[in-house]
Specification:
Elements lengths: L1 H15 L11 H7 L2 H13 L6 H18 L7
Helix pairs in contact: 1-3, 3-4
Length: 80
């Protein structure tokens, strides 16, 4: 269900964005390995729940794409 997945992603972003306002240099070594995981784990869970399981790496790749788009929309990075 695309509408449900979209709502989960929106809620995940709403919960994650406030944690990104801290000084990232303090958590840089932790932040890089976790890139895409917040949303990716939600996508992975939902893919199993709805009968079309994604591999962990596939779900994390979706999370990375969503994270990059959010960063772009927030003005943190550019399209390059």
């Amino acid at each position: 269900d695309v509408d449900f997945l979209e709502e989960v992603v929106k809620q995940t972003i709403a919960h994650k964005v406030p944690t990104l306002s801290a000084d990232v240099s303090d958590d840089y070594n932790e932040m890089c390995p976790q890139y895409g995981h917040s949303i990716g784990h939600a996508v992975e869970f939902l893919s199993f729940k709805h009968g079309t399981p994604l591999l962990h790496g596939e779900a994390i790749a979706v999370g990375m794409c969503v994270s990059a788009e959010v960063a772009y929309l927030m003005g943190i990075c550019n399209m390059d």
